[in-house]
């Protein structure tokens, strides 16, 4: 669930927003209930179950975003789905990637060839489609003794792909492999420090002084603030890692 820049949208009347939110939540409940209802039917068919979870989670994200007339936090949806299905959040994320990478026809082909979920977990970490197809074919041709061998081979490939990408960019043969992320980070961090964060601090200061915030608005703000609070430790660590990487890059 990729992050995109926020865009300005026209505000909807409060009653319309409430109606849309309720409709999205009702749809969310119906999707989850339907999924739970089919759970017993899928015993022994783990790939189908994981694929269905991924499709439902993705659809819920889209439904909530549409209802709220703005971007919705994918992490919140994942937490809700994980709790209701009694699965780990990491599993829900993996299911989402699986459903996004493989359609129904491909799913049926993998089922026919008895792909284990552990193997799929390794396969979906390969971003390049051609490389992913090669690993899939090697597994189906019996080139790997078990999923551990497949996992190790893919981990080695992913590591080499990152290293090779950086070297290729240095030689100037593959433009954008390194410069793209750097430019994007520069733009986003500039906006974050000069606009987004100051605006957030100002809003929080105002909220601290405002005793007349209605309950629904306060509850909504509370959810967003809690999510921000959860992200802060990860952001601190990422900034520390970024600073170390900048020093190591010697640019």
Topology diagram in text:
Layout (H helix, E strand, L loop, with lengths): L13 H24 L8 H23 L5 H12 L3 H13 L2 H9 L4 H7 L5 H12 L6 H25 L7 H31 L5 H35 L2
The value of Rg in angstroms is 22 Å
Topology order in helix (H) and strand (E) letters: HHHHHHHHHH
**Proportion in helices:** over 70%
Low-confidence stretches: 1-15, 166-177
- What is the averaged pLDDT score? 75
Distance between the termini: 31 Å
- Compute the number of strand runs: 0
Can you tag this structure with a few keywords?
4 domains, mainly alpha, single chain, 251 residues
Describe this structure in words.
The protein folds into four domains: 10-111; 115-176, no CATH class; 178-208; 213-251. The two termini are 31 Å apart. It has ten helices and no strands. 15% of the residues are buried. The chain has helices at residues 14-37, 46-68, 74-85, 89-101, 104-112, 117-123, 129-140, 147-171, 179-209, 215-249.
Quick recap of the structure?
The chain has helices at residues 14-37, 46-68, 74-85, 89-101, 104-112, 117-123, 129-140, 147-171, 179-209, 215-249. With 251 residues, it is mostly helical. Mean pLDDT is 75; it is low at 1-15 and 166-177.
């Amino acid at each position: 669930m990729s992050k995109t820049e926020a865009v300005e949208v026209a505000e909807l009347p409060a009653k319309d927003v409430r109606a849309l939110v309720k409709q999205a939540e009702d749809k969310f409940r119906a999707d989850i209930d339907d999924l739970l209802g089919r759970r017993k039917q899928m015993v022994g068919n783990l790939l189908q179950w994981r694929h269905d979870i991924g499709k439902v989670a993705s659809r819920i994200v889209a439904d909530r975003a549409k209802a709220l007339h703005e971007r919705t936090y994918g992490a919140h949806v994942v937490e809700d789905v994980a709790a209701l299905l009694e699965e780990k959040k990491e599993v829900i994320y993996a299911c989402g990637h699986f459903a996004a990478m493989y359609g129904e026809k491909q799913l049926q082909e993998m089922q026919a060839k008895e792909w284990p979920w552990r193997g799929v977990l390794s396969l979906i970490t390969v971003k390049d489609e051609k490389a992913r197809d090669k690993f899939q074919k090697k597994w189906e041709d019996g080139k790997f003794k078990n999923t551990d061998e497949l996992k190790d081979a893919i981990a080695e490939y992913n590591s080499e792909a990152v290293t090779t990408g950086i070297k290729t960019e240095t030689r100037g043969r593959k433009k954008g492999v390194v410069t793209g992320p750097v430019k994007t980070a520069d733009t986003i961090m500039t906006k974050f420090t000069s606009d987004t964060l100051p605006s957030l601090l100002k809003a929080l200061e105002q909220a601290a002084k405002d005793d007349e915030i209605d309950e629904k608005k306060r509850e909504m703000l509370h959810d967003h603030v809690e999510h921000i609070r959860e992200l802060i430790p990860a952001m601190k660590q990422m900034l520390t890692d970024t600073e170390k990487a900048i020093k190591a890059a010697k640019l």
